[in-house]
Amino acid sequence: MNIFGSMYDKTMAWSTHRFAAFWLSFVSFIEAIFFPIPPDVMLIPMSMSKPKSAVKLALYTAIASVLGGMVGYAIGYFATDWVQGIVQQWGYGEHWATAISWFEQWGGLVVFVAGFSPIPYKVFTICAGVMQMAFLPFVVTAFISRAARFLLVAKLAAWGGEKFAAKLRQSIEIIGWAVVVLAVVAYFILK
């Protein structure tokens, strides 16, 4: 089954589309609020196919992510009860309590770590609003961490360039199925 290869080919084709930067920014914006797929899945192929534009693309991604994070912050700040009701309804109360305790213990450092790591950023943007973290430090911390993360991802992808893209294409089926197996195993272990 050549599932991942065809998805990879389609993603690489989309990465050179004339509206690709807009869609990258849009995905980055909504990912900081609710969307489950991180913008890296678009930033990486775009940076590989256009290495000279990698820094510009990373900055678009970071700015859009911070703007989305500001919306997430506002949702948490102005709709705290609604957010906490949804968290409980969806069964994420334990995860939410962990995020709240991290904010109480480490404050703005949590936003920095969440912005740079693959931890779902939206949880922490909304949580920052619920915890009423000071807005300006939130924005500054979010921008520094998101810019650092996306610049690193984009520069690494650009460094690999088209040669890496070709090698990745050769192994994409193995990588794709390995990720599926790991996800299934993780699901049953964490269940």
Automatic annotation (TrEMBL):
<feature type="domain" description="VTT">
    <location>
        <begin position="38"/>
        <end position="154"/>
    </location>
</feature>
<keyword id="KW-0472">Membrane</keyword>
<feature type="transmembrane region" description="Helical">
    <location>
        <begin position="174"/>
        <end position="190"/>
    </location>
</feature>
<dbReference type="GO" id="GO:0005886">
    <property type="term" value="C:plasma membrane"/>
</dbReference>
<feature type="transmembrane region" description="Helical">
    <location>
        <begin position="99"/>
        <end position="121"/>
    </location>
</feature>
<dbReference type="InterPro" id="IPR032816">
    <property type="entry name" value="VTT_dom"/>
</dbReference>
<feature type="transmembrane region" description="Helical">
    <location>
        <begin position="20"/>
        <end position="37"/>
    </location>
</feature>
<dbReference type="InterPro" id="IPR051311">
    <property type="entry name" value="DedA_domain"/>
</dbReference>
<protein>
    <recommendedName>
        <fullName>VTT domain-containing protein</fullName>
    </recommendedName>
</protein>
<feature type="transmembrane region" description="Helical">
    <location>
        <begin position="133"/>
        <end position="154"/>
    </location>
</feature>
<keyword id="KW-1133">Transmembrane helix</keyword>
<keyword id="KW-0812">Transmembrane</keyword>
<feature type="transmembrane region" description="Helical">
    <location>
        <begin position="57"/>
        <end position="79"/>
    </location>
</feature>
<dbReference type="Pfam" id="PF09335">
    <property type="entry name" value="VTT_dom"/>
</dbReference>
